[in-house]
Design goal:
This protein has a single domain, classed as Alpha-Beta Barrel (TIM Barrel). It is built from twelve helices and ten strands. Strand 5, helix 8 and strand 6 form a beta-alpha-beta unit. Helix 5 crosses helix 7 and helix 10 crosses helix 11. The longest helix has 15 residues. It is globular and about 50 Å long.
Length: 320
C-alpha cells in the first residue's frame, strides 16, 4: 500500500480550511459559497447552468494526487512547500459511500459559524444545509480515484447533481463510466503539445495524446460536456486555430474561456500580469467563436469567464 500524504502537507491543508476526509478526499468552502450567503453574489455556474451556489459542495476524491503540475494551478505542489510526496503513488482507496456521507457532514460543519454573522441570509443558510449539487474538482485529478463511478452513483442516489472536472489524461477512466456526471468538464489549456508541456507540465508519459483520446470520447457522452480553457496571458492565449482543431474533435456542448486568477500557490510560478482582464477573455472568446462556429451566449465579468455554445441558451439544472 502506498504511503499516506505527509503530515506536514496535511497540516498545511487544515490551516487552509480543507476538511480532510479519510485517506485522500477533501471538502473546502469556495469563495462564491461565502459570497452567496453573505452578499447575495452567486457563482457563474448558477448564472449559466442554474446550480445554486449556496447548495453546492466543492470536493475532491484525490486531494494529494494529480497527473499534471499546471503552472496556473492554485493548489500546493511539491516545490511550493518544500514538502516531498509522489502524486502518482496512489493510496488504498476509501469506500465511496463513506466519502459521500462525510462530504455532506463536512459541508454541515462549514455552515456552523454562519448564523453568528448578521449578514448571513438565513433562508439560504437553511437551504444550504440541504445540498443539491457537488463539484467534483477542488484539487487533484478525480479520475485517479478507482471508484469514481460508484461515487457519482452515491451522490445521485441522494438527489445531488454532479459536475465532474478532469484534465483528460486518463481516458480509460471516462470510457468505463456507467454513471455519467450531470455535466462533464475537460480542462484543455493549450492549443498544441509544446504549449501543453510548458503550461500543464504532465507527470505521465504521452499525456497530450491521452488528452486527445479523451476529446475523441466526448461525443459519446449523453450529458452536456464542457471544454474549459483556463486562459493565461503570455502563456496559452494564442493559436485559436489550434484550439478550434481540438474543439472540432470533441464537439463539446460548451466552451468556457476563463481567466487565470493570481491566487494561491500559482503566485509562486506566475506574475500578476499573467492574469487577463475580462475584456481580453471576451476578445479571445470572439476569436474562438470565429474559428469554430460557436456563439457567445453568456458571460460573467466578476469571474472573467465567457460561455460559448451552438445552443441558444445553456441547459439549466436548477431554478437558480
Amino acid at each position: 500500500m502506498a504511503a499516506l500524504a505527509p503530515t506536514a502537507l496535511i497540516n498545511v491543508l487544515k490551516r487552509q480550511k480543507y476538511h480532510l476526509i479519510g485517506n485522500h478526499s477533501a471538502v473546502k468552502r469556495c469563495r462564491w459559497f461565502y459570497e452567496a450567503l453573505i452578499h447575495d453574489r452567486p457563482c457563474y455556474k448558477q448564472k449559466f447552468y442554474g446550480i445554486k451556489t449556496h447548495q453546492c459542495i466543492q470536493m475532491t476524491p484525490a486531494a494529494f494526487y494529480c497527473t499534471q503540475k499546471c503552472v496556473f494551478c492554485w493548489r500546493a505542489q511539491t516545490e511550493d512547500l518544500k514538502i516531498t510526496w509522489n502524486e502518482l503513488d496512489l493510496p488504498k482507496w476509501d469506500n465511496p459511500e463513506e466519502i459521500v456521507q462525510k462530504s455532506i457532514e463536512a459541508q454541515e460543519r462549514i455552515l456552523t459559524g454562519y448564523p453568528d454573522n448578521p449578514k448571513t441570509d438565513m433562508r439560504k443558510h437553511r437551504e444550504a444545509l440541504r445540498p443539491k449539487h457537488v463539484a467534483i474538482s477542488l484539487t487533484g485529478e478525480p479520475t485517479l480515484y478507482k471508484h469514481l463511478n460508484a461515487l457519482m452513483q452515491a451522490f445521485h442516489a441522494r438527489g445531488l447533481t454532479t459536475f465532474l472536472v478532469t484534465n483528460g489524461t486518463i481516458p480509460s477512466a471516462l470510457a468505463h463510466l456507467n454513471e455519467e456526471p450531470t455535466q462533464l468538464y475537460v480542462s484543455v489549456c493549450a492549443p498544441d503539445e509544446e504549449t501543453y508541456n510548458h503550461a500543464c507540465r504532465p507527470q505521465i508519459p504521452k499525456a497530450w495524446q491521452k488528452l486527445e483520446e479523451t476529446l475523441q470520447l466526448l461525443p459519446s457522452f449523453k450529458c452536456p460536456t464542457v471544454m474549459r480553457i483556463t486562459s493565461v496571458r503570455r502563456i496559452n492565449m494564442k493559436n485559436p486555430q489550434g484550439y478550434a482543431k481540438l474543439i472540432r474533435k470533441a464537439n463539446p456542448t460548451y466552451i468556457e474561456a476563463k481567466a487565470y486568477m493570481h491566487v494561491g500557490y500559482s503566485r509562486l510560478r506566475l506574475d500578476y500580469e499573467n492574469m487577463p482582464t475580462h475584456e481580453e477573455i471576451r476578445a479571445f472568446s470572439t476569436e474562438l467563436a470565429k474559428e469554430t462556429g460557436y456563439n457567445l451566449i453568456d458571460e460573467s465579468k466578476d469571474s472573467r469567464v465567457v460561455l460559448l455554445s451552438k445552443l441558444q441558451r445553456p441547459i439549466k439544472f436548477g431554478d437558480g
